[in-house]
Amino acid sequence: MKETVNVNIGSVAFILDEDAYRVLGSYFDDIRRRLPEGDAETMGDIEARVAEIFRERVASPMRVITLDVVRATMAQMGSPADFGEPRGAERSESAEQPPLRKLYRSRTERSIAGICGGLAAYFDSDPTLIRLLMLLLILFGGLSIWAYIILWIVIPEEPARKFNINSKNR
After folding, report:
1. pTM of model > 0.85
2. Percent helix, strand and coil across the chain, each rounded to 5?
3. Which residues contact 142 (CB under 8 A, 6 or more apart)?
4. How far apart are CA 85 and CA 87, in angstroms?
């Protein structure tokens, strides 16, 4: 015989067995550590979605939510790592070593192939300045159009950005 716990998830009352309660509590705590401090709205949305999934999976409100239902719900929602890095880990990793910079063709700052935009991002400068410099080098013989085409082929395109809930650019 297992003990049960009455809980309120997303403003909906549920009955969870004790094991399911502990696992779900640690899952929510792990997600909460990864969200920005004071971001109660996102956590409320996550809890509301978990409540919806529980209602879909359990037909009767008097039926107990088991550990298997909680694990299936967690698999559907995704791992806590999908919500970003823990708040303390971001600062410690960035303090130890600078981020590795790679040269890519830009997806956003592009006129032809994104070469100048990628160079500007790599050197942390204005893309327009790099474009003007490239144009002057091509026109006045310092760089041929073939060099630009070779750069187009050799430099990989910037990878698509993944959605991150902690991103400041929403």
Report:
1. no
2. 55, 10, 35
3. 136
4. 6
- CA–CA separation, 74 and 29 (whole Å): 13
Interatomic CA distance for residues 22 and 24, integer angstroms:
6
State yes or no: pLDDT of 99 exceeds 80. Answer: no
Residue 45 CA to residue 9 CA, distance in Å, equals 10
At residue 97, does pLDDT exceed 80? no
Are the CB atoms for 10 and 48 separated by under 8 Å? yes
Query: What would the two tokens of residue 61 be?
Result: 């409100």
- Look up residue 163 and give its two tokens: 């959605």
Burial (CB < 10 A; 0-12, 13-18, 19+), residue 74, is: middle
- Dump pLDDT digits (tens) for 22-34: 888 888 888 888 8
**Which tens digit of pLDDT belongs to each residue from 104-154?**
877 777 778 888 888 888 888 888 888 888 888 888 877 777 778 888 888
Return the DSSP state at 63: S
Distance (Å, rounded) from C-alpha 166 to C-alpha 59?
35
35-39, 41-45, 52-56: which range is least confident on average? 35-39
Report residue 156 as tokens: 């990989």
State how far the Cα of 70 lies from the Cα of 51, in Å rounded to an integer.
Answer: 11
Q: What is the pLDDT of residue 98?
A: 66
Q: What is the token pair recorded at 90? A: 């971001």
